[in-house]
């Protein structure tokens, strides 16, 4: 019985289980424990009347033999696969086993996490972070791209008029002393000339703001601000905050270090000092948004502004590098905490055999090496929070085996979201009404790749199982690139 030996190493956890209270839908415990040496007896799995989950160091149908051999227990670290080898193959340096290491690991026991940063691939001052078989560059603004090779420094059109009047709005407008001069938001253009050449908020407005609708998601790396003068007096914004939105409803204030946590104070940008000179502030990290709002905090005489936005289109990168990089399930750029699910299955209700959401990493090895859903119905989902919007162009999916039982998702839908609350399900391209069902896996191991056409930009992605074999079970990788 090959199956039985795989239960061995978690057996020590099982020894302490109180059997009666944790029976699950998949298996029941034997009335009389037929297993030796602290093994756990389970019924209702496959054809056998019962099977034994053996304690550490024991093997055999009823755990009555001591397990031994070079791969028992496995000396391979980091999901390396242990294989027993013949003596003749290794000559003098006979170990009796070889570890087949996953990419990014080396050494006899796969114990070495290769430093994927040694070749200094990050350009323009980007900081390299080592991952499992991959690396990531933390780029200083305005550089972007896998290796910080691109600079995102286009002027977005306040000065040139590329951003039109109807895209600019404000909390209020100052109509001047006689109500004849309209200091409207459409005038807030860098280097605008004339008697009335800037936006100015109404004197009574206690919470002024001016907002630009970029009409689609864009990346913003900076802002240039400028004051103006009215009847020989300089008016300008000395300090301001910035907020951004995807939908003109929910606004996120830009915080120090770009963090979104509430306890981090909102960033106050230093603005102008006179009526004419310009001040450039960088957003580091950049802001990805459709709506950008400038909120004056301290004004001289009046909150009067001319401005320009610095940034670039989101698709600059996708066309530059193909945009099909793994986004970090396998490499662990996506941390455990960023992966969640509707429900989680435990084989025989045993905690040690929990199929956690963050096990859903492509090519993960081990006894429980995937996410598996407990409800096992179409309400289940697996969610990845990428922490910032990314362009997502595809997905690779893979099934797994639960103690010999092959299980996989054979059809699925994909939903995405900017805020984790309102979701868009990918539709069939021909009709805007039908959800697209992507073809999934057909076995326990093969990679199945689907591309999203068109790709989408989002922070949250949800995998929605639609059809499956045995249980909903998934390992996966998202493909895409930075926006
Ligand atoms: C283990 O149990 C099996 C079945 O009862 C028996 O055939 C076998 O001889 C036992 N092995 C040892 C080492 O006791
Ligand atoms: C670094 O570059 C060398 C030579 O191009 C290559 O052999 C090696 O695998 C690279 N190392 C990493 C960690 O990518
Ligand atoms: C505005 O700026 C220009 C150029 O710096 C300067 O000559 C002028 O005196 C300023 N006007 C006011 C009202 O401050
Ligand atoms: C689907 O919606 C898009 C955008 O709203 C539109 O351009 C396209 O014509 C629609 N296609 C169909 C078949 O309705
Ligand atoms: C599961 O996948 C492995 C690797 O591709 C394959 O060797 C094995 O036969 C598969 N197992 C089953 C039960 O299909
Ligand atoms: Ca590494």
UniProtKB/TrEMBL annotation:
N-terminal signal peptide: 1-27
All copies of domain F5/8 type C, residue ranges: 152-312, 323-481
InterPro entries reported for this sequence: EGF, EGF-like_Ca-bd_dom, EGF-type_Asp/Asn_hydroxyl_site, EGF_Ca-bd_CS, FA58C, Galactose-bd-like_sf, Neuropilin_MCO_CoagFactor
GO BP annotations, alphabetical order: Notch signaling pathway; regulation of neurogenesis
GO cellular component term of the entry, any: plasma membrane
Keywords of this entry: Disulfide bond, EGF-like domain, Signal
Record-annotated disulphide pairs: 35-52, 54-63, 101-110, 139-148
Alphabetical list of PANTHER family matching this protein: COAGULATION FACTOR VIII, F5/8 TYPE C DOMAIN-CONTAINING PROTEIN
Protein name, UniProt field: Milk fat globule-EGF factor 8 protein a
